[in-house]
């Protein structure tokens, strides 16, 4: 499988996992010129922007550590664009989550990082 196919499969697995936890998936793979957000969701009153990282094995490192500060800034820029495009007020509570998949194990980190400009 190529990287895109593996990534899509990981995102589908993460979306199913979140749905099982009661999270509403609003959009997948939201793209703009600045980048992409894997999942846009609603959970516990928050608008959630979630990044999904997959690793077949832990040899390449934790999938969670792959969400670097530059990647976080990109996610935040795309989230800002999403909010403007959809008319979401600044007063709306938002959260940035990371879902790490390593083999068959899923880790969900809520509020994984703050908004980064």
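-> sequence recovered:
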């Amino acid at each position: 499988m190529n990287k895109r196919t593996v990534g899509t499969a990981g995102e589908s697995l993460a979306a199913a996992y979140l749905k099982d936890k009661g999270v509403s998936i609003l959009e997948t793979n939201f793209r703009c010129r600045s980048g992409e957000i894997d999942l846009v969701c609603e959970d516990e009153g928050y608008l959630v922007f979630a990044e999904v990282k997959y690793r077949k094995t832990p040899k390449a490192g934790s999938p969670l550590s792959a969400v670097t500060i530059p990647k976080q800034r990109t996610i935040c820029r795309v989230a800002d664009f999403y909010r403007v495009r959809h008319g979401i007020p600044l007063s709306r509570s938002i959260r940035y989550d990371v879902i790490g998949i390593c083999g068959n194990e899923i880790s969900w980190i809520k509020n994984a990082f703050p908004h980064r400009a």
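The chain has a mean pLDDT of 90.
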